[in-house]
C-alpha cells in the first residue's frame, strides 16, 4: 500500500534580493514519516520551514502541506500543523497547566477537551506534583518535552520541529526521540531539523541542505551506502567538502 | 471569541506576575501626580527675603509689615550694610533683598518720590521674576491705600481677572500634562515592550504559526492595556478632584471618551514601535526618547508653545500629546464641549489611523 504524501514541495525558492536562501528545493514527505531536514547553520533550513508553516511567502515554486497550498491556504495549513521552535517557546511566567490551557485555547479546543488533554499530558509526563508551578522554574529538558507535547495538543497531522533538542543532555534527547516515535506511530508526520548527526540516524528519511539546495535525500542507510561511509556524520562531512 | 478571552487572560497573568510592570502601571501614576501636585510648583509661597532699611521710619516699617504679613514672603534677615547683601545671598537662603533708601518718608512727602531697590537672586529666573512681580503688586496696593480720597487727574487703573484658574494653582496646569504622560507611557511603552518580549522569547513565532490571525494577536495584546489605562486615567482624575480640588467643569463622559481616544492613539504608537524594534530594550529606549521627551518638552505641558521658536512650534503639531492636552485642559478647566474640541479630536483620530496603517504596512513587509 502506497502512503499518501502530506508535504509536497516543487522547486520551492526563497530569495532575499539576489541571494537565494532556499534554491529550488523539491521533496515529498509521506504520512507518518519522520523526515529529517539537515544542514549546516545558514544552509536555509529554517527559511524553508518557515515557508512550509505559512509565515513566510515563497518567491517561486510550489508546495502543499496537508493538502493545502502555501500561497493561498495558510490559514488551513496552520490548523493542521504543530510547531516547536529552536528557542524554547512556552511562557515562563505561566504555570504548566496555564500554558496547556492557553495553547489549547488558541487552537480552538473546547473546554472539556482541554481539560481531558491537560490531565492526560500531565500524567504522561509525570508532572502531577508540579503542574501548578511556573514553567520558568522547570529544568530545560522538561520544558522541551512539555513544549513538544503542547505542539501536539490539537492533534495536528504534521509537526514541525526546529532543532528541538538544542542544548539538552543525551538522556533527555533519548527520551525526546521516544516521544517523537510514539507520535509517529500514532500517524503524525514529523518534520524535524537538527544538526546532531546521530539524531539523523533515527529518521526514516533525511534530506541534507547545503547552501540553499538539497544535495542528498534518502534513508540514512542508503545515504551511507551511496557515500561509502559508516555514519551520517561522515555523509555530511563528505557532502560539505564536495561543495567546497 | 473564546480564544480571544483566553488570550486576554494570559496577558493579565503576564502583567500581574511581573512586579516591575505592575509598579510602572500603578505606582508611577500616583507617584507622579502627587509629585507634580505637591513638590513641583511655580507658585510663590513663604519665600525668604532680607531687608536693608536705611531710613527706619514709619513708612518703611508699614511697608515691611505689609510684606511680611502676606503669605508670600517671610522676612528672614535684617541687613545693616550694603556690603552684607552679597553675603546674605551667598548663604543661599534668601531669594530677594529690599533696599530702602535713606530718608524714605521725607523724600516721599517732600519730593513725592522715594525709591526701593528690589534685588533678586536670578539663578532661578522664573522665581526671580515672580518675586519681583509680587513685591511690586504689594507696593502698588500700599500706594493705592495711601492715595485713597486724593483725586489724581489722569489715572489708568487696570483691573485684571484670572479666569479658569483664578487662584493660579500650578497643579491645574500639571494634572492634564501628567495624565497625558502617564497614558502615553503606559499605553505605548508597555505594549511595545510586551509585544517585543514575545518576539524575544520566540513565543511570537508560535502565535503566528497558530490559527490566530496576526491582528487578533495584536488586539489581544492591546486590550488589557486599554482597560488598565482607563483605570489609570480614572485614578488620576479622582486624585486631582479630591486631593487637589481641581474642578472638572465640562462633561466627565466627554473627558472619558477623549481619554480612550488618546489611549488608542498611544497604543497604535506602541504597536508601531514594536514593529521596528527587535528587543525589549530597544522598545523601551525608543519609547522613552521618542515619546517622553517630546511630550514633556514640546506638548505645551510645561513650556508654552506660543513662546517657542517657529520651527519648534511647527514640530509640536505632530505630537499627539499636544492636542490631547488642549482637549483636556478645555474640558476640565474651561468646561467646553465637543463644539470646541472637534478639531483636535479629528487630528487625534487621523494620527491614530496613520499609525495603525503604518504598522500594518511594516508588519506585512516583515512577513514577506
Automatic annotation (TrEMBL), chain A:
Residues 7-236 form the ABC transporter domain. The keyword Calcium does not apply. It is a multi-pass membrane protein. It comes from the Bacteria. Gene3D superfamilies: P-loop containing nucleotide triphosphate hydrolases. Coiled coil: none annotated. GO terms for molecular function: ATP binding; ATP hydrolysis activity. GO terms for cellular component: membrane. This is ABC transporter ATP-binding protein. It comes from Aequorivita antarctica.
Automatic annotation (TrEMBL), chain B:
InterPro entries: ABC-2_transporter_component, ABC2_TM, ABC2_TM_bact-type. Keywords: Cell membrane, Membrane, Transmembrane, Transmembrane helix, Transport. It comes from the Bacteria. Residues 132-366 form the ABC transmembrane type-2 domain. It is a multi-pass membrane protein. It is found in: Cell membrane. The chain crosses the membrane at residues 21-40, 171-189, 225-244, 251-276, 282-302, 339-360. One of its GO terms (cellular component) is plasma membrane. Pfam families: ABC2_membrane_3. PANTHER family: MEMBRANE COMPONENT OF ABC TRANSPORTER YHHJ-RELATED (PTHR30294), MULTIDRUG ABC TRANSPORTER PERMEASE YBHS-RELATED (PTHR30294:SF29). This is ABC transporter permease.
